[in-house]
Amino acid sequence: MSETNKTPFINYNWLLKTDSARRLYHEFAEKQPIIDYHCHLDPKAIADDKKFSDLGELMLGGDHYKWRAMRSFGIDEKFITGDASFREKFRAYATMLPYAIGNPLFAWTALELKRYFGIDKTLNRDNADEIFDKCSEMLQDDAFSTKSLIQMSNVVALCTTDDPLDSLEYHEKIDASGFETKVLPAFRPDKAVNIHKSGFVDYIAKTGVHNYSELKSYLSSRLDFFASHGCRLSDHGLDYVPFRTGNASAVFEKVMCGGKATDEETEIYMTDLLLFCAEEYAKRGWVMQLHFGPMRNNSTRMFEQVGPDTGFDSISDTMPAIKLCKLLDSLDNGNMLPKTILYSLSGLDNQKLAALMGSFQRGPVRSKIQLGAGWWFNDTKDGMEAQLKCLANHGILGCFVGMLTDSRSFISYPRHEYFRRIFCDLLGSWIENGEYPEDAEILKEITEGVCCKNALNYFNF
Question: Which one, out of 10, 32, 180, 270, has a CA that is 20 to 30 A from the CA of 174?
Answer without folding.
Answer: 32
